[in-house]
Amino acid sequence: MSDKIRPQHLARKAMLYVRQSSAYQVTHNVESKKLQYAMQDRLRQLGWREIEVIDEDLGRSAAGTQTRTGFERMVAEVCLGRVGAVAAREVSRFARNSREWQQLVEVCRVVDTVLIDQESVYAPRASNDRLLLGLKGSLNEYELDLLRQRSLEARREKAKRGELIVNAPIGIAAVIIALAKVAESRAAQAGRPDWLGFALFTVALSSLVYGLIESNQRSFTDGLVLGCLAAAAVLLAVFVIVERRSAHPMFDLRLLRLPTFSGGSVAAFGLSASIFSVLLYLVLYLQDILGYSALATGARLMVISGGILVTSTVAGRLTSRVPARLLVGPGLIIIGVSLLLMRGLDAGSTWTHLIPGMIVAGVGVGLVNPPLASTAVGVVPPQQAGMASGINSTFRQVGIATGIALLGTLFSNDVKDAVLTRTATVPGLSARGPEIAAAVQSGQIGNVIARLPAPARQVAGTITRAAFTTGLDRILLVAAIIAFVAGVVSLAAIRSRDFARAAPGGQEGPRK
Known about the structure:
Layout: H1 7-10, E1 13-17, H2 23-28, H3 30-37, H4 39-45, E2 51-54, H5 69-79, E3 83-87, H6 98-111, E4 114-116, E5 121-122, H7 127-161, H8 168-181, H9 195-217, H10 223-245, H11 259-289, H12 294-318, H13 325-341, H14 355-377, H15 385-423, H16 433-442, H17 445-451, H18 454-493, H19 496-501
Parallel strand pairs: 1-2, 1-3, 3-4
Antiparallel strand pairs: 4-5
């Protein structure tokens, strides 16, 4: 036992700080994590009976650019005089920048708390130890700067070898093909950009999406959320007034008088707000819950991509023979059916449960995509084709933005309720229910489970899988309803005669 450790130190608890700098280290550097937790044995040998492990910062860098709640809580406990020793396997685990390091050392000096690593015990009140700790802090910061310089130099070398321009040839080829094959169209009386309309619509959409996202952490009755939603409604109303009065509007509202254009816009929104918004949560399910790597997850989602590829080829040929509404409307209804087929997941489900729904989803998306593009531009004069295409793309983007936000709010609420309900009855997990729920919501559940005691990990894993699938089951139903509604509306609104009217030269256009 070190002579630096005195009875007043042992009378207070010891805090062991466990940290790894990234999620990759948490997952793969298991031995390092075990060695850090094993420091509890050293603290017991030194005489401490009460030991608190601080491991909330697993997966977070100590470079000072991230908020470390565990480190902040530890410093607060030290300031209150409740801690006799703070320990880590290496003192560099505490901090990599001088400000935080000096803060910790100074606080420990004031309240007489010792610092302990695997090699020694340091008493900050002793001048020699304080000097040694200062040198270690400086070396830690120097090491971090050195690592940064090496990383930057490695990136420069990769750039010299051309390893950072892998996607450049694809982009260059796309530009060349577009310039060679895509005909330019210009409005005869083109005006200036509609900056006011652009600003109003952007702020309105941002306010709407932010309000939906914040409703997850707050509630739909919260003042901030209600304010964002109200602001979005007001700004959209002002946007409509501005566009109606503008000589050169960004969004010619007269296009909405065409049922086919409106139906195509609803279809674009519904497609993105349903299946494409759900894809995010399918990825989270495959990676965070089932534990697949990014590559393995992508390989499994190719079931949808394959269905889209095959069906789009067939649907592209059918557009010249079959009315567009008989492809777009039924395609969205098929997507709704596919989302219902994916439901029924539970804690014991495997990814194969999703295969039937994925295949059907690929068929549905493949039927919708080819005729949907022509629906947007095929009912307007050629000089308005750019605007029509842009509006259709905007409805797609708005659909995926609001879809993810809305589904995310519903998903998070369900997951939180399910986790809190299940952990409340499990000894040792009830106090960590909110932390586990937040980790499931943010996709960091692997890090949290890794920090739990071994006996609790399996129980926590089962609880999180059950909670996640409960939330996923609900949003699959909501997304299916969106797809069904969009399918019915587009089936009723899209009309073949609108295409004929828009044909150039007064000639009848192709039957769609």
